[in-house]
Amino acid sequence: MALSIEPTDATLGAIVTGIELSALDDATWREIETAFHEHALLIFPGQSLAPHTQVIFATRFGEIEQLYAGYDSVALSNKDQKGGMAEEGSYQMEILRGNEGWHTDSSYMPLAAKASLLSARVVPSKGGETEWADARAAYDGLGETAQFHVADLMAHHSYFHSQAKIGHQVEVGAGYGFYEGAPPLRPLIKVHPVTGRKALYIGRHAYGIPGLAEEESERLLHDLLTFTCQPPRTYTHAWQAGDVAVWDNRSVLHRARPFDHREAREMLHTRIKGDPTTESEHAPLSSDLRTRG
Ligand code: OGA
Ligand code: MN
């Protein structure tokens, strides 16, 4: 079984086969890590990882970000605790509905995420794909004038804000990300700590660019998002149970696609913490990094 890393036709993503993630040696890991930095999204079809093995693989990327204290992974599922279908409009379903908007994980936290791993356990007969957009290629494609325009702008990131926008009012303490305190302010341009490539750091959690009027800020963020999430910068994965995906939250945006909620969709998500020097809310502006050479 030879390792194969096949780039997609889009500007991001590669399909990785000829590998068993449950028995990953260090040399192969280095190839995976290099591919992760280059493609920002890796899909590993047919791995069927046990939950604890998923966590072991995730730990290769860094420290786990626990979304529930004591749990290294969380289920993204439309089933309730008792095995029935979760009720439409419930907190659980509203969070899933929120995931259908383009976003990057934990940008609303004081420390944003480095990467996320998602595996499919049960998939609906149609729909329920995951889609990613290449925010690096989007930055590159903006052109110099627009790049200059966004160079020193920042935005707030809030999960309250993004859920409220889809009509879901959330209380403090309702779940992960809904904490008391000021939402982080982050540069619109993210400089990748390893590759140095710049990416647009936007998505549904971003709002309120200081220095711009509210509508102007909304319009700019909307226009940038629309530009980002266009072919050839998007890739859609139609899941089979057992598939695993890992993506770089510093480089790409993602969203879930709708499906018929009478069918089950059960995914297991593991999130990897960002580096406090580059993913904390006080990370330097891209222009500061630039002058440091
Ligand atoms: C996530 C996420 C999308 C999906 O796992 O962070 O947004 O397709 N998932 O379930
Ligand atoms: Mn997500």
What would you note in describing this structure?
There is one protein chain. By secondary structure, the protein is of the alpha+beta class. The protein is built from nine helices and 16 strands. Strands 1, 2, 3, 4, 5, 6, 14 and 16 form an eight-stranded mixed β-sheet that branches. Strand 1 (4-7) and strand 2 (14-17) form a beta hairpin. The mean pLDDT is 96. Bound molecules: N-oxalylglycine and manganese (II) ion. Manganese (II) ion is lined by residues 99, 103, 105, 254.
Bin the strand percentage: 15-25%
Main pleated-sheet profile: 8 strands, mixed
| Total strands | 16
Structural class category: alpha+beta
| Spans of at least 5 consecutive residues with low confidence | none
Shape: globular
On the 0-100 scale, what is the average pLDDT? 96
In DSSP terms, counting alpha (H) and pi (I) runs of 4 or more, how many helices?
Answer: 9
CATH architecture: 4-Layer Sandwich
Heterogens: N-oxalylglycine, manganese (II) ion
- Output the CATH homologous superfamily: Clavaminate synthase-like
Write the layout of secondary structure elements.
Layout: E1 4-7, E2 14-17, H1 26-39, E3 41-44, H2 51-59, E4 64-65, E5 74-77, H3 91-98, E6 113-122, E7 130-134, H4 135-142, H5 144-150, E8 154-157, H6 159-165, E9 185-187, E10 189-191, E11 198-200, E12 206-207, H7 214-228, E13 234-237, E14 244-248, E15 252-256, E16 266-273, H8 276-279, H9 286-292
Parallel strand pairs: 2-3
Antiparallel strand pairs: 1-2, 3-14, 4-16, 5-16, 6-14, 6-16, 7-13, 7-15, 8-9, 8-12, 10-11
The structure holds N-oxalylglycine and manganese (II) ion.
